[in-house]
Structure formats: C-alpha cells, structure tokens
Amino acid sequence: MLQLTRGDGRPLGDQIVENFSSMISLGNLAEGTRLPSIRQLAQRLGVSVHTVVTAYDRLISKGLIESRAGRGCYVCRRQLCGDFPQIEVVIPNAATALGFAQSSLDTDHPLFPASSGFLPSDWFADALSPAAGARLVKPEAEAMQPAPVQGTAILRDLLADDLRRKGIPAQAGNLLVTYGATHAIDLIIRAGLAFGDSVLVEDPGYFVLRSQLERAGIRLVAIPRKVDGPDIEAVEEMARLHRPRAFFMQTLLQNPTGGNVSPANCHKLLSLAERHNFLIVEDDVYGDLAGPHLLRLAQIDELQRVLYVSSFTKVLNPGMRVGYIAAPAALVPQLVEQKMLSVLSGSTLQEMLVADTLESGRYRKHVEQIRLRLARVRAQANRILPEFGIRLAENPQEGIFLWGRIPQGVDTDQLVSDAQHNGILLAKGAMFSPTGGSRDFIRLNAAYCTDRIFTDYLKTRFPLEAGAR
After folding, report:
1. Which of 454, 468, 374 is nearest to 419 (CA)?
2. Does the structure show a pLDDT above 70 at 89?
3. How many other C-beta atoms can be found within 10 angstroms of the C-beta atom of residue 293?
4. Least confident window among 139-143, 279-283, 325-329
5. Structure confidence at residue 142 (pLDDT)
6. How far, in Å, CA of 320 to CA of 366, rounded?
7. Which of 370, 371, 421, 469 is most buried, by CB atoms within 10 Å?
8. C-alpha angle 349-290-361 in degrees, rounded to nearest 5
9. Model's pTM, two decimal places?
10. 133-360 in CATH: which number?
11. What mean pLDDT comes out for the span 334-347?
C-alpha cells in the first residue's frame, strides 16, 4: 500500500502524509475508506507509533481524513464545489518605496536580495538558544502569559542595563517594547504629531519612514545628509522657517549611506533642537554593528529631547519582531496608550526569548561575529564593485549598507526594472530621497553584493566596465 524510501533525507512522517494525500486526491482511496490502525500501520512500515500518530493528525488537519471515536480513521467525503476564478497574484513593483519593502519581505516570490536591509538567514544560525525556546514554551512558563503593555519587566530591565553601558541613562520606566522599529516610529507619530505638523527628515533617508509620515498628513522638510551627518546650516534655516515638531534621523550606520554623525555635529544638532524647540527621534536599529567608541545623540541628551528607537529584527533575527523606544518619562504614557489602541499588547514569548539571549551573553557574541563577517565582505566589495564601474561613497568600514554611484549614463529606473526581471532586488537612490535626488546611486547590502549571482548579473549589465579592468 505505502512504500517509504529510507536514506534520502526525507522524514518518514512526511512521506506517509504525501502518500496518503496523493492516493486520496487521485481517488485510489475512496470516500469512507477505513485506514489501517495506528499500530498496524506502524508495524507494517517499520516506524514508531508516534510517527504514524503525527502523520494522521496532519492528514486530519488537511481535511483529508477524519477520526471517529473508537472506530479509527476514515477518508473524508469530498466537498463538491464549483471552480473558483483564478486570482492573479500581484507582484510588487520594486521601483516604488512600498513595493521594494514588500519585495524584501516576500518569501512566495523571492528575489536575490542584493539591496535588502536584512542579513542572510544563515548568519543567524547560533543566535538563539533552542534550549531556551523549548523551556519558554512549556505551559507553566511565564512566556505563555499575556505581555504587559509596556513590555515584560525582565526585558525592560535588561534593555535599561544595556543602554546605560552605552552611556544612555535609561531606566525600565523610560522603555516601551514594540513590534520592531517601524511600529515604534508609528507610535511616535500617533502620540506626538498631528495632521499638518512639520518635521525634518534626512535626504537621503529611510524610505518607509517617509511613507509613514506622509500617510499621517505630516509635512516633510528635507535636510541634506553629508559625510559627517545632517547639513547643520540647513537644519538651522529649516527649523527657523518651518518650526518643526521633530527631526527623524539615524546617527550611526545611516540607511542608506552607511555614514555616522560626527561628535561635533551631534552637539550642534542638540543645541538647535533646544533653541528651536523640536524633538529628535534617533533611529538606531543598526547601531550595535558600529564601533563602541561612536557617539549617539541620546548619550549627550540623556533622554530629554531625544526619543531613542532600536530593534532586534535586523541584528538578532529577521523573524524576531521586537523593538523598543526609550523616551522622556513624560511621553511614555501617551506611547503606551497608542500601543494599546494599535496592537493591545506584545508577545511575551518573543520578549522572553530576546531577554534570554541578552542575559546569557549570546547576543554580545553574536554581534561580534556579525561585525567580523561584515568587515570581510565589505573589504571584498571595495575591491570588486569598482570593476563594474560602481563607485562607493565615502563611508566607514562598518555596517550593512554600501552606497554606490552607478556608471554615468545608466538609467536607475531601467536598471532596477531589469534587475527585478532577472530575479534581483535593487534599491535605487531616488527612492530614499524626499526631493528625488540621489538618482545616480544604488543601495547595496554588503552581505550579498559580492555573491556570484549578483556579480554575474553585473557582468551582463556593465560588460564594458567589467572587461576593461
């Protein structure tokens, strides 16, 4: 009846499910047919009872068989229904900001993530402890309880300790745990801004942030991002003209340029924020990949005017939707209220898993390994990419992003479209600019851009540059 293949790597339980599913769909097992008992099938196939129980449970969940109390398992009656109309799946357009973001997250129609903001999955192999996961999912474990709205106490305590080691004088009461940094930014917009308010944003800067602000009816005032940070003269002039409520920016390893704000500019920015009465939202999702000597705005400001945002999604695990806000104490209640209105609460299981990773020291070791790997691939990229006429902007030898100027005469829109057609995800520079600038730049992920899949594509796209060197 059933034939199992041993030694080819396929789990025996999967083969049982596949065999029965095929026989039922082909009509080889008629409706109402009684399947062998669990023990009979286990003996016949030479597998454990547990393997058969699990396989039958999966077939029941698929609606192919049913269990009748005291009588065994039977093939279900097939439901008669008309043909459903074919619904075409819409493939996102990677040339648009939200289309690019969707493409980066799309596992059904994956593209080679040459410009993704995420690291490769195999870089996270040892980041989380399987033993901790098994311990946390026990019914009596704290991780199975609802999460406090502000976040679990143990995680907030650990985050406060980590921030203090970075020179940011935070307490657990300053912290709100969120579903990643995007959720954190959304809460800040909801709690602190109103329709028609003006805010400062970096040019180029993070494109999803721009979409969030525009959807909320916020007026964006672009500030050029220079090698050492935002253009201070532009900040002063735009603050005087537009009276912004906030400045959304990244101090370390900025997305997309990869640059850092100099200490001198950090002090000047905070002085301008004080003079013109605006808040600074400091997005530090990549900051742990930067050197320990670098300065953050929240270190100088001590959470007076700075709302500090970070996340574990980029560095610890792409599937780990845990971020946080460290905010002035007076703003925390409004942020907590907005979180309740949007998602009610968080995930105790995810928060406890992050807490275990921090407390055990695994996170520190994992970050050190990521930094070493990034240093190696960035060095390779600095050698390889110029061979294709891609000139990398001046930036530190740290972090994920490379900001590259493409060869003269190449249309970035056509390049992005052609790359998508060839299964490669590219991010054009103009997507990051609220003014439509940076048109001759692309953002690249150092972990992917030296992969042969990408370099082979570049050879076909820029043959003259590649052949001339």
Report:
1. 454
2. no
3. 5
4. 139-143
5. 87
6. 15
7. 370
8. 40
9. 0.88
10. 3.40.640.10
11. 96
Sequence spans of domains, the chain: 12-75, 97-124+364-467, 133-360
Q: How far apart (Å, rounded) are the C-alpha atoms in residues 307 and 211?
A: 20
CATH 3.50.50.60 fits 12-75, yes or no: no
User: CA 72 to CA 70: how far, in whole Å?
Assistant: 6
Per-residue tokens: 196: 């028609």
pLDDT computed for residue 128 by the predictor: 92
Cα(424)–Cα(433) distance, integer angstroms: 22
Contact 254, 225 (CB under 8 A): yes
Strand 323-326 to 306-311 pairing:
antiparallel
Q: If you count them, how many residues does the chain have?
A: 469
Contact between 392 and 402 (Cβ < 8 Å): yes
What is the CATH T-level fold of the domain 97-124+364-467, as seen in this structure? Answer: Aspartate Aminotransferase, domain 1 (3.90.1150)
Residue given tokens 């270190």 in the structure block: 299
Q: Please state, for a pLDDT cut of 90, what percent of the chain lies above it.
A: 81
